[in-house]
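Continuing the batch. This is chain 6 of the set; chains 1 through 5 are on the previous pages. Same settings as before, nothing changed between runs. Recording input and output for traceability.
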Amino acid sequence: MGDLQLVIFDCDGVLVDSEAISARVLAELVTLEGLPTTAAESATTYPGLLRSELVRRVEVNVGHPLPAGWLEGFERARTEAFRSELRPVPGAAEAVQAVKSAGAGVCVASQAKLEQTRLSLELTGLAGLFDPDAVFSGELVPRGKPFPDLFLHAAATMGATPAHAVVIEDSPSGVHAAVAAGMRVLGYVADDEEATLQLAGAEILRSLGDLTGTLGLS
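Output for chain 6:
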């Protein structure tokens, strides 16, 4: 394990298999605003944005202001879909437990609202693996990903130094944030993002089952 003090997990796309669900729901609502959008287009156009950034980008793309309550409607529709469809990423629980068993700390640092991340962890049975104070949101810091603020805040709260922390991410913006924070970053590849994540500065992790070997925990 060496000097490893902390492993920081992104949530959506790393611990929970939520990306396709979110993209589909968002595509449906953007289409209703007059811009036909597929789930695949949604996933590439609105990846990992803070709530305020999401609204601004959708308004630019549809060419008009969104109606009052649009964002809250999206979040309600997404939550309903999560309740029936959300599953953990294969190997997520085992990977987190292996890090804990090796003596390193674990936490979650997501761009999403804190309540959404907590709900996702609860729905997938992963909440019990993390202390209540070890779940962090991009809305807790001045700047979200791709800036390093969130990861630096998480590490400081968890008592770890950046050079002894590892981040598990699945998005280029998250990889950029981890690199800017001075942390080692593993890019979890669930689709065709391998080249993009490598270009952003990540080592590639093709399965969470490979995490213990990659970190030298086994």
